[in-house]
Input
Amino acid sequence: MIDFYTWTTPNGRKVSILLEELGIDYNVHPIDITKKEQFAAHFLAIAPNNRIPAIVDNETGVSMMESGAIMQYLAEKHNRFLSTDAKTRWATLEWLNWQMGGLGPMAGQTHHFVKYNPGKSQYAEERYQSETRRLYGVLEKRLEQRDFIAGDYSIADMACWPWISRFEWQGIDLKDYKNLLRWYTTIAERPAVQKGYQVPKFVTGIPMP
Ligand SMILES: N[C@@H](CCC(=O)N[C@@H](CS)C(=O)NCC(=O)O)C(=O)O
Output
């Protein structure tokens, strides 16, 4: 059984969607980051960077923070959503890391400045929003000739999708990106995505443009 520590944010939803897609049992431990629960000693023992998500796999004794590493671990353990074909596997990991190093951090800063602190720094708002738009453009181009980011539906899609689901917070009209919109809508229809989106609790339905 997996112990899963999470909150209602894109990084948490990446892993809850994967857990639902894998159809495995897990215990949810909500860590309310608005109440600073990420600094509790019991959580820091598992996630020393005081950020969700984190897991403890009681079957193997593996305890892990960082959503990208967790996704790779779970996909490898269950041999799903990460191709065994070398070329596709590396493309999947390449785009998973693109999300971890680019889309997630840039969109996260856009939420910080554009949604939660408008007017505090015009430079930061413009910088992060234009960078987020640039990254949307990169993904739009990637999806021009393919249904999913790398081969079949994979952890690369599951990692990017929850960040795109915050397009409204980023001041982006998803209808301006036709390939991305098709990809986003297709994934939004998956029952595991609909379930995983509501972990650890319901906040809103999946945003649709
Ligand atoms: N690189 C980390 C980022 C995790 C992260 O930023 N989590 C946010 C929620 S999406 C968090 O826990 N924030 C708490 C805080 O800022 O103190 C990962 O992908 O797991």
Observations:
- The helical segments are 10-22, 41-44, 67-78, 86-116, 122-142, 155-164, 178-188, 191-196.
- The mean pLDDT is 98.
- The chain is about 50% helix and 10% strand.
- Strands lie at 2-6, 26-30, 54-57, 62-65.
